[in-house]
């Protein structure tokens, strides 16, 4: 059984109420719910986790960006 780290927080899918958890640094990102496959946005972590409000990311560049190879 995996223990939840002190920085992870729980939230629920806005479509199917699937319980999910992630690190606060991912707040604002869009992810695909593993249960219903809908795109959902990770909410801001609850107060007291040491993280402040995170601005939502636009688009999905965080998971589709491929760095260009350096020319040498």
Structural features, described:
It is a single chain. By secondary structure, the chain is mainly beta. It has a domain at 1-45. The protein has one helix spanning 61-64, and strands spanning 9-12, 19-22, 30-32, 39-41. The chain is elongated. The mean pLDDT is 76.
For the termini, the CA-CA separation is 47 Å
Provide the helix percentage: under 10%
How much is the radius of gyration in Å?
15 Å
Strand content: 15-25%
Mean pLDDT: 76
Order of helices and strands: EEEEH
Q: Looking across the biggest beta sheet, what order are the strands in?
A: 1-2
The helix/strand class is mainly beta
Q: How many distinct helices?
A: 1
Task: Profile the largest sheet.
Answer: 2 strands, antiparallel
What oligomeric assembly is this protein in?
Answer: single chain
Number of strands: 4
Which residues sit in consecutive blocks of at least 5 with pLDDT less than 50? none
Outline = elongated
Question: Which terms would index this structure?
Answer:
mainly beta; elongated; 72 residues; 19% strand; two-stranded antiparallel ribbon; two-stranded antiparallel sheet; 6% helix; 4 strands
Give the topology.
Blueprint lengths: L8 E4 L6 E4 L7 E3 L6 E3 L19 H4 L8
Antiparallel strand pairs: 1-2, 3-4
Briefly summarize what is shown:
6% of the residues lie in helices and 19% in strands. It is mainly beta and 72 residues long.
